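ok new one. same drill as before - structure tokens go in, u give me an amino acid for every spot. 423 of them this time. try not to just spam alanines like last time pls lmao
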């Protein structure tokens, strides 16, 4: 048997795989030209200017078409978009929102910034919300669920929607990590009441920063547009909405997308098909080869294999020690592998665990809830288990056949080297 790099053997690769910033590594002259056009037209603002390019509008229209959803709103980030989504749904002080224990801190952070309080629900072997355990965090103050499609894998949306319907909850889909993902043929983000996308650097597509809010509901859309633009709904005519400008306004924010971001995103969006078909094809190749080579490997559970992006190969181990050992040995072979958030659930961050907010008087947590929100380190034991038993290996869209072969060879080498009793 080949000596593992972690034991002093020769690594499978001589240098690491290319970085997994799918959108950023595909940036080029298309984005440059699009941004140049906005600049040369001296028209960087979406709602007025001299020679308007309408890049943000173009992005919104293209997204609407490709996602099959009537309303899309460009915003400055997914965090802003989540806040916009909650405000559109009327969520704020005195409300609770269900958030998965495994997500980026932006998800619960946005809930707190919206004036509400996050309650954490378990994730299952898919690393996404466990629909069977939603009931256990439910009470009469919960107004919404944020379903996060984590690291390229889709949530069990049918079960989540059924639960939400039963309890009359809004479902907000956080698609930040999984732009392009589908569930039973439908684009994620369009299944719940509102979907939110991120165009930050670490996501599938990027303009450095940026985001989008999508919905089928015109009322939610109008409220989202108003909240993101100081209470105004400037595109009433574009959407044929005949509401009164002043009667329906409320105090809002400025979360408007710049034309510079819009221009980059129009070009990035055109690359989404390539990105998703590459990651799906990479995943299929790697998995098919591994099922042959290492039949005993167990894969991260999927709620829809065809819909998942395949942007990460998820392997499931029997013990935490095995998962850790595998991760370290893979990294020694120069094939990046990791546990989600290094095995830490989102509420372990001190600002969430200690319910720290910027307010000096009334924080969202001080609302006199009938069941006050109390956090503890061990409140989601299944999630802790699931993220620590699952190792993710990113499969960037620009991997070539040699790279894929290295991933396959590396997984087989390390798995056999660490766990096989026969050689
Ligand atoms: C990155 C991320 C966000 C935040 O996105 P920004 O555009 O950086 O605000 C929200 N939710 C999840 C699950 C994320 O991964």
């Amino acid at each position: 048997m080949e000596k593992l790099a972690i034991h002093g053997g020769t690594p499978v690769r001589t240098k690491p795989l290319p970085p997994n910033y799918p959108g950023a590594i595909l940036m080029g002259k298309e984005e440059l030209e699009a941004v140049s056009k906005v600049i040369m037209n001296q028209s960087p603002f979406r709602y007025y200017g001299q020679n308007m390019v309408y890049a943000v509008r173009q992005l919104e229209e293209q997204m609407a078409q490709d996602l099959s959803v009537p309303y899309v709103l460009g915003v400055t980030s997914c965090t802003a978009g989540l806040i916009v989504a909650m405000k559109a749904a009327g969520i704020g002080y005195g409300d609770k929102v269900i958030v998965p224990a495994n997500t980026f801190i932006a998800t619960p952070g946005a809930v707190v910034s919206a004036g509400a309080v996050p309650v954490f629900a378990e994730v299952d072997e898919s690393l996404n919300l466990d629909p069977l355990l939603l009931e256990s965090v439910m009470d009469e103050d919960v107004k919404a669920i944020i379903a996060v499609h984590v690291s390229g894998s889709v949530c069990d949306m049918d079960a989540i929607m059924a639960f939400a319907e039963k309890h009359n909850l809004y479902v907000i889909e956080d698609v930040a990590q999984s732009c392009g993902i589908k569930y039973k043929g439908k684009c994620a983000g369009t299944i719940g009441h509102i979907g939110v996308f991120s165009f930050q650097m670490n996501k599938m597509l990027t303009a450095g920063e940026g985001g989008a809010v999508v919905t089928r509901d015109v009322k939610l859309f109008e409220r989202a547009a108003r909240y993101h633009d100081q209470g105004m709904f400037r595109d009433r005519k574009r959407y044929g909405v005949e509401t009164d400008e002043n009667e329906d306004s409320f105090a809002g924010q400025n979360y408007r997308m710049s034309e510079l971001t819009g221009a980059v995103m129009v070009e990035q969006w055109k690359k989404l098909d390539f990105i998703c078909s590459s990651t799906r094809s990479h995943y299929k190749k790697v998995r098919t080869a591994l099922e042959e080579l290492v039949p005993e490997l167990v894969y991260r559970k999927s709620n829809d294999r065809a819909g998942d992006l395949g942007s990460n190969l998820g392997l499931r181990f029997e013990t935490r020690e095995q998962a850790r050992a595998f991760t370290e040995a893979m990294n020694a072979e120069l094939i990046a592998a990791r546990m989600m958030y290094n095995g830490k659930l989102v509420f372990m961050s001190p600002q969430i665990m200690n319910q720290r907010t910027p307010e000096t008087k009334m924080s969202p947590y001080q609302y006199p809830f009938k069941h006050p929100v109390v956090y503890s380190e061990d409140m989601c034991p299944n999630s802790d288990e699931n993220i620590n038993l699952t190792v993710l290996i990113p499969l960037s869209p620009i991997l070539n056949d040699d790279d894929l072969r290295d991933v396959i060879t590396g997984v087989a080498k390390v798995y056999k080297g660490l766990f096989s009793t026969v050689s």
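The mean pLDDT is 96. and btw Residues 77-79, 103-104, 106-107, 148, 174, 176-177, 198, 200, 211 surround pyridoxal-5'-phosphate (CB under 6 Å).
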